[in-house]
Specification:
The complex is a heterodimer.
Chain A: E1 16-19, E2 27-31, E3 38-42, E4 47-51, H1 65-72
Antiparallel strand pairs in A: 1-2, 2-3, 3-4
Chain B: H1 12-17, H2 21-28, H3 31-39, E1 55-56, H4 59-70, H5 76-90, E2 111-112, H6 120-128, H7 137-151, H8 156-163, H9 166-173, E3 186-187, H10 193-196, H11 203-221, H12 230-267, H13 271-286, H14 295-312, E4 314-315, H15 322-336, H16 342-358, H17 365-370, E5 379-383, H18 395-407, E6 413-418, H19 424-435, E7 442-445, H20 446-457, H21 461-464, E8 468-469, E9 475-476, E10 492-494, H22 496-503, E11 507-508, E12 513-514, H23 528-560, H24 564-568, H25 571-576, E13 592-595, H26 598-613, H27 619-627, H28 634-642, H29 652-671, E14 682-684, H30 689-692, H31 726-734, E15 748-751, H32 758-774, E16 779-783, H33 787-795, E17 804-806, E18 811-813, H34 819-826, E19 830-831
The chains are: A alpha+beta, B alpha/beta.
The structure holds zinc ion (ZN).
Chain lengths: 73, 833
C-alpha cells in the first residue's frame, strides 16, 4: 500500500492499525509509519482511500433514518 | 446579583432552528447562573488528560498525612478520624463570587483532590503525570515524593493486595479482565438518605444518639466479664471516631459561616451581596449541625455531606434523589410561604448542579479513559414512587429538568424513574432535555426495577421503592438495611474476554499469559456445545475471581481503611457501633458491572452459523484469522459480520444465544455470594470501558479487531448492525427478562433531531416509550444530536465546546472525549421511530 501523503510504500499491516468504527465496512483507519498521517484504508483492496482529518467522515453518514432520507432524495 | 435573565439579542428561534441549544441556554439563564457556569473549572479529563491550569491539591494530602503520622499509636479508626478532622479544621476554604452554596473538595477552585492513602500505584502515577503540579513544580514534586515515600506499602490497596491469593492478584492487576480496587478508598458510596436527609435530623442529633450508645456500652464493659462484651471495646472506638469526625464536620461548616460573615462585614460593599453572604453564614451555622428548615439549608447540607465524604474517600459516584429529598422544601418555600421566587429557586438549583460539576479528584489513566470527560458518575435519580407506591414527582422534579437545560453540565446527569402514573407534563420536560441534546435524563422502568430489587436481594417493597442509582445503573435503596454503604469497583468485568478465552484455551494473547482455565484447543471443537461449555467455564472463572476480590475487600476494609464519617451518617453503623463498610446487618445489594457484554452473543452466534451450521469456515481457519487480527482475512471477516445474525434485529438465532448467555450467567450470580450472603447479579453496561478495552480485547468472531471500540451499550446492538429498525431493537431487548436475567441492562439509542421536532416528534417518542415500557425494558437513553453537528464539532472544537452527548451511563461534552469515542458515537444508528 502507498501512503497518499508521502508515498511511503509497504504491506498494509506495516501501517499501524488504529480502528474501524463500522465493523460491517471494510474501511479502517491506519497510520503511516513515515509521515504519521491518519489514512482511511480499504482492507479488501489493500489501498488507502485518502488522508483523514478532524471532522472527516470516511464511513459516510451513520446508518439509519438520516442516511435513508438522504438516499431517498 | 439578581435573578433576572441575561440580555437577549440574536433571535432564540434562529438558534433553535440550528439546534444551537447552548446559545439558548446562555441567553435564558440568569446573570448569576451564567457567571457561575462559566467560572467553574472543568475537572473531567479531555480524552485522558487534564485541562490546562488544573492542579493537584497538595494541602489536603499534607494535612492528612501529618496528622496520621502524629497519632501513630492510636487504634486505626481513631487515627483516621483525627487525620480527617485535621483536614476539616485546616484546609483553605473559599467562597466563589455570586455563589450561594459553599463547600469544595480541595483548597482552591482549580484543584483536583488526591487520595494519598488509597493506592501506591496511583500515587506513583500522580507523581509522573505531566502538568498537574502546582508551581513551583520542583517543590511540589518534592512534597509529593515525600508523601509517596511515607505511604508506599501501607495504602489500602497495598494492604489488600498482600492478602489476595497471589494468582488472583496477578491476573486482576494485569488489567485485562477488570478494573477498580477492592477498597472503600475508591468506589461508589451508597447514602442512607432516609436517615439524614429528610429534614428530621442534624449531626448534633446523631452525636447525642451515639453518646447514649456509648454510655450503654460502657455499662457493659464495667459489668460481668465474659466473651460477649469483648467486641464492645472496638465498637466504642468506632463510636468515638464517628463523634470526632461529625464534630469536625460541624466546625468545617462553621468555618464557611465565619468566612461569609467576615466577607459581608468587612469586605463586601454591595448591599445585596452582603445579604447573600450573611444568609450563607446563617445557613452554615445551621447545617449540618441541625436539621435544615428551607431549600437553601437542605441543598447546603446535602452538598457539604457529599464534599466531606470525599475528603474521607475518593467517591466515584454521587447517588442522589434531589427532587424527592429537597422537594418538600421547594414546595414550602416557593409554593406555600413564597419566601423564594421561582427564579431565585432556579438559581439555587442551578448552582447545586454546578457545585457538583465542579468536584474532581485525581484518577489513574484507566479511570480517566474509562470515564472520559467526567470525574465520576454523578447520576442523580429523579421521579419514581414513594414507599406507598404513589407518584413521587413534585414541583422540584420539573424545576430540575428545566434548570438542567439552562446549565448544561455533563455531570451530574439525571436518570428518571418512569412509572405508569407519571404525568404528561413531566414527560414533556424530560423530552425537552433530550431534544436539547443533553443525552439525559435516561429512563428507568420503575415497576421492573422495584421487582428486580426484590427478586435479587429480597428488599421489601417499601424499601425497594426508595431506590437511587448507586453509580450509573444499579438501583440501591436508601434505607437503614437496604443501603449498600460501599460498592467496590473491582467487580467490573471485561466480559468480551469470556469468549476470547474460550477460543484460546484461556490464554490471553494481548497480555501474554494464561488467564482463564484451560478449556481445550478450540481448533479441535466439533460442535457448538463444546464452545459454549468453554465459554461457561471462562465466564464462571472470570466473575468468581473479581467477586472474590470485592468480598475480601469488604471483609477487611474496616481494618484496612475504615470510614468514620460515612459511618456517622449511616444508621446501621450508628446503631451498632460498626464501621459502615462492615456487612453486619446489611441486606446486601451487590452487582457486577458487565462491560463489553454483547460481543459474546454476536461472536458465539457467528461461530455457530459460519463454522458449525453452514460449515463455510473451519475452527482452524477462524483461530488463525483471529491470531493475525484478521489481517489478510478481510473477506472472511466481513462474512463473520454480515453473514451471521446480529443482536438487535429480532432474530431468534442470535437472540436465543444472548438469552442463554445471560441465564447461564444469572445462574452463576446465585452461586456466588456477597459478604451478606446475598446474590451477585450482573448489569451489562460500559461507562466508556468500550473504548478503554479496545486495546485490551483481541480480535473476535463478531468481526472486531484489536484496537476497535467495543459496542457502546450494555445490550445495545453494535453501531450500524441494528439494520431492522428501532422496534426490532426493542423486541430483541424485550426478550430479556429484566427482572430475573440480571441487575440492569443499558440501551443506547440515537434519534433524529429532525424527526423529533415539534409536537409530532413528542407524540412519536411517547408512542415509542409506550412500546419500551410494554416490553418490560428497564433502561433506555437517547442521543439526539445530528452527525452534522458532531462532525462540525470535531473539525472546530472551540466553537462547539458546549455540545453534550450521551456516552454510556453518563454524558460528556463531545469535545472532551477521544476521537475514537467520538467516531463510535457518530456511527451509532439513528433510528427513525
Ligand atoms: Zn505517509
Amino acid at each position: 500500500m502507498k501512503c497518499p501523503e508521502c508515498s511511503y510504500e509497504a504491506p498494509v499491516p506495516e501501517f499501524r492499525y488504529l480502528y474501524n468504527v463500522r465493523i460491517d465496512a471494510p474501511l479502517t483507519l491506519r497510520q503511516c509509519p513515515q509521515c504519521q498521517a491518519w489514512l482511511s484504508v480499504d482492507e479488501l483492496a489493500g489501498e488507502s482511500t485518502g488522508k483523514v482529518e478532524a471532522g472527516d467522515a470516511p464511513w459516510g453518514k451513520s446508518a439509519g433514518i438520516e442516511r435513508d432520507l438522504e438516499e431517498a432524495v | 446579583m439578581t435573578a433576572e435573565p441575561a440580555k437577549l439579542d440574536v433571535s432564540l428561534q434562529e438558534h433553535e432552528e440550528k439546534q444551537e441549544w447552548w446559545w439558548i441556554a446562555e441567553k435564558k439563564r440568569s446573570k448569576r447562573l451564567d457567571y457561575l457556569r462559566k467560572a467553574v473549572w472543568k475537572k473531567g479529563a479531555l480524552g485522558g488528560n487534564y485541562a490546562p491550569g488544573i492542579k493537584v491539591d497538595l494541602e489536603g494530602p499534607k494535612l492528612f498525612t501529618d496528622m496520621w503520622k502524629w497519632w501513630k499509636f492510636d487504634p486505626i479508626i481513631m487515627r483516621r478520624a483525627k487525620a480527617l478532622a485535621h483536614v476539616f479544621d485546616n484546609i483553605p476554604i473559599f467562597i466563589t463570587d455570586h455563589s450561594q452554596l459553599v463547600g469544595y473538595w480541595g483548597s482552591a477552585p482549580h484543584t483536583i483532590s488526591w487520595r494519598v492513602d488509597g493506592a501506591s500505584i496511583v500515587n506513583e502515577e500522580l507523581y509522573n503525570e505531566p502538568g498537574i503540579m502546582p508551581e513551583p513544580e520542583e517543590e511540589s514534586l518534592r512534597k509529593v515524593a515525600e508523601i509517596n515515600d511515607y505511604w508506599a506499602g501501607q495504602t489500602a490497596v497495598d494492604k489488600v493486595a498482600r492478602i489476595l491469593d497471589p494468582e488472583d492478584a496477578v491476573k486482576f492487576l494485569s488489567g485485562a479482565i477488570g478494573w477498580g480496587a477492592p477498597t472503600s478508598a475508591y468506589g461508589y458510596s451508597g447514602k442512607n438518605y432516609e436517615y439524614y436527609l429528610k429534614g428530621e435530623r442534624g449531626f448534633e442529633d446523631i452525636i447525642a444518639d451515639i453518646e447514649d450508645h456509648i454510655a450503654e456500652a460502657e455499662e457493659k464493659t464495667i459489668g460481668v466479664p465474659g466473651p460477649d462484651i469483648l467486641h464492645i471495646y472496638d465498637r466504642i472506638q468506632n463510636w468515638e471516631a464517628m463523634i470526632l469526625v461529625l464534630e469536625a464536620a460541624i466546625r468545617f461548616a462553621k468555618r464557611y459561616a465565619r468566612l461569609a460573615r467576615t466577607m459581608a462585614e468587612h469586605l463586601e460593599t454591595d448591599e445585596k451581596r452582603k445579604e447573600e453572604l450573611l444568609r450563607i453564614a446563617e445557613t452554615c451555622e445551621r447545617v449540618p449541625a441541625k436539621a435544615p428548615r428551607n431549600l437553601q439549608e437542605s441543598f447546603q447540607m446535602d452538598l457539604l455531606i457529599q464534599t466531606m465524604s470525599r475528603f474521607e474517600a475518593s467517591e466515584g459516584a454521587w447517588p442522589a434523589r434531589p427532587d424527592y429529598y429537597h422537594g418538600p422544601f421547594y414546595e414550602k418555600d416557593v409554593l406555600q410561604d413564597k419566601s423564594l421566587t421561582e427564579e431565585e429557586a432556579t438559581d439555587l438549583i442551578g448552582e447545586f448542579m454546578i457545585r457538583a460539576y465542579e468536584v474532581g479528584g485525581f484518577g489513574p489513566r484507566w479511570a480517566r479513559e474509562g470515564m472520559q470527560g467526567i470525574t465520576g458518575t454523578w447520576v442523580w435519580t429523579i421521579g419514581g414512587v414513594k414507599p406507598d407506591g404513589s407518584d413521587a414527582c413534585n414541583a422540584l422534579t420539573t424545576a430540575f429538568l428545566r434548570t438542567a437545560r439552562l446549565i448544561r453540565v455533563s455531570n451530574p446527569t439525571f436518570a428518571f424513574r418512569w412509572h405508569p402514573k407519571v404525568s404528561d407534563e413531566v414527560m414533556r420536560e424530560c423530552f425537552e432535555c433530550i431534544r436539547h441534546g443533553l443525552g439525559y435524563p435516561s429512563f428507568r422502568n420503575d415497576p421492573i426495577l422495584v421487582a428486580n430489587c426484590m427478586n435479587w436481594h429480597g428488599h421489601p417493597v417499601e424499601e425497594a421503592r426508595t431506590w437511587v442509582h448507586q453509580a450509573c445503573m444499579s438501583p440501591c435503596p436508601t434505607t437503614k438495611n437496604g443501603v449498600q454503604p460501599f460498592r467496590m469497583a473491582s467487580a467490573t468485568a471485561n466480559c468480551a474476554k469470556m469468549v476470547e478465552y474460550a477460543l484460546h484455551n484461556g490464554y490471553d494473547h494481548v497480555v501474554g499469559m494464561q488467564m482463564g482455565p484451560q478449556t481445550g484447543d478450540a481448533r479441535t471443537f466439533t460442535d457448538f456445545e463444546q464452545l459454549f461449555d468453554a465459554w461457561t467455564q471462562q465466564m464462571q472463572w472470570l466473575l468468581s475471581l473479581l467477586v472474590r476480590t470485592v468480598n475480601l475487600g469488604r471483609y477487611k476494609d474496616p481494618e484496612f481503611y475504615g470510614r468514620p464519617f460515612l459511618s456517622g451518617i449511616t444508621e446501621r453503623a450508628v446503631e451498632r457501633g460498626i464501621d459502615a463498610v462492615s456487612p453486619e446487618g446489611e441486606r446486601g445489594n451487590c452487582w457486577i458491572t458487565a462491560f463489553t457484554w454483547v460481543e459474546n452473543a454476536d461472536s458465539l452466534a457467528a461461530v455457530k452459523k459460519l463454522v458449525f451450521d453452514d460449515k463455510k469456515y473451519t475452527m482452524d481457519q477462524l483461530i488463525t484469522a483471529l491470531e493475525t487480527n484478521w489481517d489478510g482475512y478481510e473477506q472472511m471477516r466481513l462474512d463473520f459480520v454480515n453473514k451471521a445474525p446480529k443482536w438487535g434485529n429480532d432474530d431468534d438465532y442470535v437472540d436465543d444465544i444472548m438469552l442463554r448467555c445471560l441465564r447461564t450467567m444469572a445462574k452463576h450470580s446465585k452461586v456466588m455470594r456477597c459478604t451478606s450472603n446475598n446474590t451477585w447479579p450482573a448489569a451489562p453496561q460500559n461507562v466508556s470501558g468500550n473504548i478503554h478495552y479496545s486495546s485490551v480485547v483481541g480480535a473476535l468472531p463478531n468481526g472486531r479487531r484489536l484496537g476497535d471500540a467495543l459496542y457502546d451499550g450494555g445490550i445495545s446492538p453494535g453501531p450500524g448492525l441494528d439494520k431492522k429498525g428501532p422496534t426490532a431493537v426493542l423486541k430483541s431487548c424485550g426478550k430479556i427478562d429484566h427482572v430475573a436475567d440480571g441487575r440492569a441492562f443499558l440501551l443506547n439509542q440515537r434519534l433524529s433531531p429532525t424527526q423529533m421536532a415539534g409536537e409530532k416528534g413528542y407524540q412519536l417518542w411517547r408512542a415509542y416509550m409506550r412500546t419500551w415500557a410494554d416490553l418490560g425494558l428497564d433502561h433506555i437513553q437517547f442521543n439526539m444530536v445530528s452527525d452534522k453537528t458532531l462532525r462540525a464539532a470535531q473539525k472546530d472544537p472551540e466553537k462547539y465546546q458546549e455540545v453534550i452527548v450521551r456516552v454510556a451511563g453518563y454524558s460528556a461534552h463531545f469535545v472532551d472525549i477521544s476521537r475514537k469515542t467520538q467516531d463510535n458515537i457518530i456511527q451509532r444508528t439513528i433510528q427513525g421511530i
